[in-house]
Amino acid sequence: MQIIQIGELDPDDVYLQRFSTYTLPQLVEAYNRQVGSTCCSSARGDYLVALYQELKHRPVNIAVIDTGEGMWLDRRVQLDPSGRRLVLEPKPVPAGKRVLGWLVAWIQRHM
Questions:
Q1: Per-residue buried b or exposed e for 9-32, using 16+ beta carbons within 10 Å of the residue's own CB
Q2: How far apart are CA 51 and CA 73, in angstroms?
Q3: What is the pLDDT of residue 40?
Q4: Three-state SS for 71?
Q5: Is residue 74 over pLDDT 80?
Q6: Where does the pLDDT of residue 63 fall: very low under 50, low under 70, confident under 90, or very high at 90 and above?
């Protein structure tokens, strides 16, 4: 489980300025690129703080990633159809399970 604790950045921060020009889908893409990353640097910290601050200021519900003191970075998200809420992306079904599910269904139909 990955959680990033969030502080505050100077309003002149380069990442804050960049994210203020992003559309909501672009912010979601920026967030998803960080999911699962184990890189740890001060630049990444500033990037994540700016991303969190920008998401908090947008008219979108980010409860699915918001811990109150930071944000989760363990699951990819997407905008719901209304564009007003982040939801978890469905977990992909591993190829082996898809094949097994198809095989079970085929056997059941032919028995």
A1: beeebebbeebeebebeebbebbe
A2: 12
A3: 82
A4: strand
A5: yes
A6: very high
Burial class of residue 70 in the structure, from the number of CB atoms within 10 Å of its CB (0-12 exposed, 13-18 middle, 19+ buried): middle
| C-beta separation of 51 from 19 below 8 A | yes
Cα distances from 27 to residues 4, 34, 52, 110, in angstroms, run: 17, 11, 9, 48
In sequence order, the 6+-apart residues with CB closer than 8 A to the CB of 107 are none
Domain spans in the chain, listed from the N-terminal domain onward:
3-109
Express each pLDDT in 18-58 by its tens digit.
999 999 999 999 999 999 888 888 888 889 989 999 999 99
> Rounded to two decimals, what is the model's pTM?
0.74
Side-chain half-sphere exposure of 36, counting CA atoms within 13 A: 5
d(CA 46, CA 48): 6
